[in-house]
Amino acid sequence: MIELREATGLTQEMLAALLKMPRSAYSMGESGERSFPAEGLQQLIALCKLVPPSANEEDLPSVLDVLANEAAEANDQLAFYKEGCRVKAANKQRELDKIIKRYEQGLRLLQLLQTYGEQLPKIEENAHVHNWIEGATSFAKLKLLDNGLAKQQLLALEIRQLLTV
């Protein structure tokens, strides 16, 4: 920390003023006798990146303005990212709704085919109908697998994750 401060040419007084703490408390933080608040450390690191080695106390307010602008830009970027996540979540919700609908349709079709197949007498004249029912049943089972509960749960999890951002 000392090397970073010295490289920028800032004094302990200047940095203590930035962190709104007494110089003695700052000095103890620099020597490791006391810890800096996390937000203060972030400000110090950002400040040391921005301050030229020839900085003086008059430059400090302009540096603070730059930090404030960077914070505002970061907040704007975060808001943009959150909005993007909400849009993605809405799109995934529509996809999930479609999958659930197809799953329910496939389930109803399968139940209907199985019921009809069980009620239709197994005689030679109905053999082609039974073959068709078997094929349609296989198709319905594939649709159930394709739009299955695991896929629905995965999409629901993705939606929850996007909405927690």
Task: Offer a few descriptive terms.
165 residues, mainly alpha, 434 Repressor (Amino-terminal Domain), 7 helices, 79% helix, rod-shaped
In short:
By secondary structure, this protein is mainly α. It has helices spanning 2-8, 12-18, 23-31, 38-50, 60-119, 127-146, 149-163.
Task: Provide structural commentary.
This protein has 7 helices and no strands. The protein is 79% helix and 0% strand. The chain is rod-shaped. It has helices at residues 2-8, 12-18, 23-31, 38-50, 60-119, 127-146, 149-163. The protein has 2 domains: 2-55, 434 Repressor (Amino-terminal Domain) (Orthogonal Bundle), CATH 1.10.260; 74-163. It has 165 residues and is mainly α.
Explain the layout of strands and helices.
Layout: H1 2-8, H2 12-18, H3 23-31, H4 38-50, H5 60-119, H6 127-146, H7 149-163
**Helix amount:** over 70%
Tally the helices.
Answer: 7
Shape descriptor: rod-shaped
Mean pLDDT: 81
H/E series? HHHHHHH
Q: Tell me the distance between the termini.
A: 33 Å
Please give the largest β-sheet: none
Classify the beta-strand content into a percent band. Answer: under 5%
User: What is the number of independent domains?
Assistant: 2
Structural class by SSE content: mainly alpha
How many E strands? 0
